[in-house]
Design goal:
It contains three helices and eleven strands. The protein starts with a helix and ends in a 15-residue tail after the last strand. A ten-stranded antiparallel barrel has the order 1-2-4-5-6-7-8-9-10-11.
């Protein structure tokens, strides 16, 4: 074999090895980045992966005697506004009694350097603030990529029992929002993330 072909084959081998090495390094860097995410950051990323989509859901658990939402109401979650640090997620309710829509609620999740914060933005139909709005709390206790718990300090102090919110996300499968008292659900709403639906109008005050 001529010297030219020998050198050419050797050059091709070196080139292939270099490409494979660069590719492997790139994959290693991606894995390293993923592994350095805190659980709450991975949770936030899972939520953000549904940005722009809306999904239908329904009531799963409710406190006895409280009919703020019923099992027959049609519920919609819309992952509407997303940035690196803030998710605004409206929650729409169509009541079965009269077919009217309640678009007063927007869940606001904020990612801080040391954890997450949940706030409830409640508006009147004219867009002004409701009498009770922007209540919520900070991430507390549980810190998992699939579940975060937020504490309501005033409600906990008032009752002496832990009160707050539990939010679960299984990307592409299920989103769950609920309130907890101690270790138990008091309210629980589940949304089906397998099938996006038409996006609803803007929530009140967010046009």
């Amino acid at each position: 074999m001529s010297t030219f072909f020998t050198r050419t084959n050797a050059g091709i081998s070196v080139l292939i090895a270099t490409v494979l090495l660069i590719s492997a390094c790139g994959q290693a860097d991606e894995s390293a980045t993923a592994s350095t995410l805190q659980p709450y950051e991975a949770w936030f990323a899972s939520m953000a992966s549904h940005c722009g989509n809306a999904y239908a859901g329904g009531l799963t658990t409710m406190p006895p005697g409280d009919d703020m939402i019923t099992f027959d109401d049609y519920l919609v979650v819309h992952f509407r506004e997303c940035s690196d640090d803030i998710l605004k997620v409206p929650f729409h309710i169509q009541t079965v009694a009269d077919g009217q829509w309640d678009r007063s609620r927007t869940w606001i999740f904020t990612k801080h350097e040391d954890g997450l914060e949940l706030r409830h933005d409640h508006r009147k139909p004219d867009g002004s603030d409701d009498e009770v709005t922007m209540y919520g709390g900070f991430q507390y206790g549980v810190n998992e990529a699939g579940m975060q718990i937020f504490q309501s300090v005033p409600r906990t102090e008032e009752t002496g029992i832990f009160r707050g919110w539990r939010i679960e996300i299984d990307p592409g499968v299920r989103y769950t929002y609920g309130t907890v008292r101690g270790d138990d659900w008091s309210w629980r709403i589940d949304f089906d993330l397998t099938q996006p639906i038409d996006t609803p109008p803007a929530p009140w005050g967010h046009e």
